[in-house]
From TrEMBL:
This is Bacterial transcriptional activator domain-containing protein. The keyword Isomerase does not apply. Residues 25-99 form the OmpR/PhoB-type domain. InterPro entries: AfsR-DnrI-RedD_regulator, BTAD, OmpR/PhoB-type_DNA-bd, Sig_transdc_resp-reg_C-effctor, TPR-like_helical_dom_sf, WH-like_DNA-bd_sf. The lineage of its organism: Bacteria, Bacillati, Actinomycetota, Actinomycetes, Propionibacteriales.
Length: 303
């Protein structure tokens, strides 16, 4: 694209830049015009009917005479974007409006273009693919739709976005591991956990990436953190698949770890045993393992 480029940003606070410089937001005074811009940008390239815009803007209860008010909001948005005419980058279509992502690029649209439909899994495994996912992550400069912290439609978009990020980064991290790109895999896996929260697939690829980069003790600690997180937030324990992943890492580190790391490994194992026993209904922790616990505590945790 040549000439001046106007760009819409949905990561972080909703804003508009022109050739990288923020556009004065005075033309978008008020919540509703900003939300009109956000909703149209979310659906960039697809017409948004007026009645759907109204439903979202007024939380399912739009006023009877919303049409004129909505049109005034769209006029404010066009003014903010520096557009003239109804067939410009924000066009009027039958019963609605459509934002053209070719004329008005949107960071979220670019993100989805880079990761592709359905995430990374449908696009093979090569270094070009990894670069595309990494470029997509660089666009995520803040929480999606941070300006709309309490809008239900924005929260739904954030949930969908998180799922897309996790699917792409988990797949890309697995690809990086297969290509023996350990540090890239670790960076992608950490992004997956950041966006995935309780998603065990993200934690499994993190555990494997830590192990692949020689951070066996950190891999074991990651499993402990996940166990504690699931227990405290969801009242559950890791799935059999995640437990097998942990046991595989544990077995590999038994074979290759230096003797000095045994102390930390034993500390982690004892902690896991205690956590699992706490989670079993009707079972009290026995005192017979006190001697074992004192012995483990006496071993230096060198990591």
């Amino acid at each position: 694209m040549t000439g001046t480029q106007t760009r819409i940003h949905l990561f972080g606070t909703t804003r508009v830049t022109r050739d990288g410089t923020p556009v004065d937001g005075k033309a978008l005074e008020g919540v509703k015009p900003r939300q009109v811009l956000s909703i149209l940008a979310l659906e960039a390239g697809s017409p948004v009917p007026k009645d759907r815009l109204a439903e979202l803007l007024w939380d399912g209860a739009p006023p009877r005479s919303y049409s004129g008010t909505l049109e005034s909001y769209v006029c404010l948005v066009r003014r903010h974007l520096g557009l003239r005419g109804r067939d410009s980058g924000l066009a009027t279509v039958l019963h609605g409006y459509v934002l053209d992502p070719e004329k008005l690029p949107v960071d979220l649209t670019d993100f989805h273009r880079l990761i592709g439909p359905g995430g990374a899994g449908r696009h093979g495994c090569d270094r070009e693919r990894l670069a595309a996912v990494e470029a997509a992550l660089e666009l995520v400069t803040g929480e999606l739709l941070a300006s709309e912290a309490y809008s239900p439609w924005a929260e739904q978009e954030r949930t969908r976005f998180a799922a897309a990020v996790v699917a792409a980064t988990v797949d890309a991290a697995g690809c990086a591991l297969r290509l023996q790109e350990g540090e890239r895999a670790l960076s992608l896996a950490r992004a997956a956990v950041r966006h995935g929260g309780f998603d065990e697939a993200a934690w499994r690829v993190l555990i494997n990436a830590l192990d692949a980069t020689g951070r066996g003790a950190e891999a074991l600690r990651a499993y402990v953190r996940l166990t504690e997180l699931l227990a405290s937030e969801l009242g559950t324990t890791p799935s059999p698949e995640t437990t097998r992943c942990y046991l595989d890492v544990l077995a590999r580190n038994d074979d290759r770890s230096p003797r000095g790391s045994a102390g930390e490994e034993l500390h982690l194992l004892l902690r896991l045993v205690r956590d699992r026993m706490h989670s079993v209904p009707g079972v009290d922790l026995p005192t017979a393992d006190r001697g074992l616990g004192q012995l483990v505590a006496a071993i230096p945790s060198l990591g």
